[in-house]
Amino acid sequence: MVSGRGVSAYAQPETLIVQVHTLVTPRWLVPIQPMTVLEGHGLALDQGRITAIVPPDALADIEAVEHIDLPDHVLMPGLVNAHTHAAMSLMRGIADDLPLLEWLEQHIWPTEGRFASESFVRDGTRLAMLEMLLGGTTCFADMYFFPDGIAQAADAAGIRAVVGMILIDFPTAWAKDASEYLSKGLAVQDATRDMPLVTTMFAPHAPYTVSDAPLERVRTLSDELDRPVQMHVHETAFEVEEAFRATGQRPLQRLDALGLLKPGFMGVHMTALNDDEITLCARRGVSVVHCPESNMKLASGQCRVDDLLAQGVNIALGTDGAASNNDLDMFGEMRSAAMLAKLTHQRATAFSAEQALRAATLGGARALALDETIGSLEPGKSADMIAVSLRQPNTWPVHHVVSQLVYACGREQVTDVWVAGQRVVEHRNVRTLDAEQIMNRAAHWAQRMQEPA
Length: 453
Hints:
By secondary structure, the protein is of the alpha/beta class. The chain contains 14 helices and 17 strands.
């Protein structure tokens, strides 16, 4: 056995039998790096990590404590939801069919003002994690209040999370001003050090809600702590126009002047980009987190993903929150991203199935500074992976595995999920969360929200 990365990372041992803890043998294996489909191969796991991709003629040489045979399945990396507001699952459907600012200012912010609390965030995050795990998401990046509670909930559920140290100029239930947001965020950074599946990122909300001085502090802290930064940027043309009218600068120009545009910076949405800004993103090494379904539902605009890819910009996918989507379905997000790009660019070849699948896995991992750990099935990486049954009427017969995954597959076809080698979903049963209790708590919050203010 060899430990180097790559599909060929299996060597015939001197003895005929190699012992591993777990051997998974799917019909198809999609490692992502490289983007290929391997048929009849096995994946060997030990101590939560991938030790080898085993070719068919060497499977007989593997002795495993646990052998999981998946004759009708694809084994692939877990999906990475690179942007969400998990707790907002409790607000799913309360204000639909509205433009962004009206949705935010007249419905979402007032509801948060009434109900946002540590218990609300914990219950909403648990509901979101239940949905995401059943849909094949093994890692999510979250931007919301009470990130300490989000981190604890993720740690207990056995799902990988990148928790945002939220920053806004105005007071909320979490903090009263920018200084307190930052100090409490840094306390969360310290508290997550012993949580092996939880990391952090700085999460200033948007250019129109965070002033220059706090953003300069974020730039300094992100450099010192080597933490990524995620921010809603150029979400709508109106946002960009208002910023230019008020300051004479487009938001990206302002962020660049503050030194924030650099590797590790994630611009979320990015629907209103001109050619120069696409070039700037490429030059600065930023990632773009594309949230196509939320953008379409709020009529926010269209991200030029194919133009960004053409210049080498890393693309990740996110669902945004369930209050604006209305689900956390990364299979749906891949399909929407691919089809919207074809319409946006008026090219059927734009944002191919392979590019969409990469964005939902390795692209998200790279944006979150986790690509050395997750995002592809390579020896040495963490065993964050999912099994997807294709023997269903909507995905049968199989001519092209990746096309089936992106254009035809539903999240309900995910049968098993592993995070760091732990089987957290087995035959559609989430082993780390109490589904009935979570659903009851969600119903409790729904009843409260329907009561008069």
